[in-house]
Amino acid sequence: xxxxxxxxxxxxxxxxxxxxxxxxxxxxxxxxxxxxxxxxxxxxxxxxxxxxxxxxxxxxxxxxxxxxxxxxxxxxxxxxxxxxxxxxxxxxxxxxxxxxxxxxxxxxxxxxxxxxxxxxxxxxxxxxxxxxxxxxxxxxxxxxxxxxxxxxxxxxxxxxxxxxxxxxxxxxxxxxxxxxxxxxxxxxxxxxxxxxxxxxxxxxxxxxxxxxxxxxxxxxxxxxxxxxxxxx
Length: 232
Hints:
Shape: globular
Helix content: 25-40%
Strand order of the largest sheet: 4-5-1-6
CATH topology: Alpha-Beta Plaits
CATH architecture: 2-Layer Sandwich
Number of strands: 6
Largest sheet: 4 strands, antiparallel
Radius of gyration: 17 Å
Number of helices: 9
Order of helices and strands: HEHEEEEHHEHHHHH
Structural class: alpha+beta
Low-confidence stretches: 1-16, 69-82
């Protein structure tokens, strides 16, 4: 069971006032400026998800790839990522229409900052595609340090099922993101045949008998969050 070393030493890390620490876990999130959508079609989401894999390497090329707008499985000029060391350990993620959530472990000095900097290339892609200019995200990304194992487990559930936390994203009218099987890492956790394999799940699933037990825990956690959030 993981226990935060920084927590034991009395170090409090919130909103990047203190640098990221190797071996520590952080909840990372951001949303569109003025709460605008940051994914306008499924190809935007595919491009962002591919970025999670492509840019999570210490060594990477400068090529910025673009999803073919006609075929979701074709990426122009893209090469398969090599087996270089990762910048971060992606524990879980979720894309919503106007914001995203990650649970990341810092495994290299400056890894989270560099990883998020590279993901910023999505703004260039988005602006070129939609003939716009200016910022897309609401300032710099936010980060909250995970201080205990209990918090780690609950944040994993919150991120994996974040689309179910928000009523406006969980209504009767389906958003195109609901049709994308890897809009979050939930399927990586509960389906053995999942092919995406972006996340390092062992720190979470290793604390449960099997994926079914984790599925039950996560769903109960989300129901508790929803009840508390919408109790009025």
